[in-house]
Amino acid sequence: MPTHFNHQTPKYQVRSVKRALTLLRTFLAHDGELSAAELSKETDLDPSTVFRLLLTLEAQGFVEVNHTTGKYRPGVTVLELGSRFLRNNDIRTRSIAHLERLRDEFGETVHLTILDGSEVVYLEKLAGLYPIGFMSSRVGDRNPAHCTGVGKVLLAYLPEEELAARYPDGQLTRYTDQTITDLDQLRLELARVRKRGYAIDQEEHEPGVKCVAAPTFDHKGIAAALSVSGPVKRVDHHISNNDLIDKLQQAAAQISEQMGWGRGVDQLGEVEKPARPKMRAVRTR
What we know:
The protein is an alpha+beta fold.
């Protein structure tokens, strides 16, 4: 077997494993339990194949069956794997103290995310000190990248060919009246993000919610994004009166320093390379 190969190449994929993982991934799009028939329909797998795969996954703890309804849900082994991922994720470990400081200072919800395809995945969420009931993010969940602050920050540093590959038809799903739905318009927005060093989600994904996001870098380049989110009026107040953008960028710069930014960046391709984050002093109040 070669030392290096394209992990997307079907030649090296085991069909039975791929089918089992496809079943597990189906649960990502649903909050509730799913029956074997529903899983079969959503995955286009034969019912008998689904039945055998579910028995195997259940035996290994990856799914469990509700004996009252006969439906399936993710098992405890999935939770254990997710916990191990979070525990061993270096970005999350190095970021958590900065996230806590931002949450405590502004009282708003803070997030840490990474990019996967055309979606962001939430590695961490610290809920704000003032309860709000309309923010849908949860650790492990996904949201579209093109209409979230964290997503736009992460997309901004992709080479053009990678950006185009993630949106092959050039059309972007609308979530609110503010959502950018054209890829060329998104390119213009991403250029602005690179120039100023942060992104703003102005009710583009959820009505009433505003988000300010900043990128973090490691020794290879863009690594993750962190953000502060809350009701529009409160976030606007923090921006105008409490140096939110400066302090968010300061936190991102400190994380980037810890992750090795500026030492060996070599894969940003044709994308404009951002300046190494500066450790700026911030006014205190």
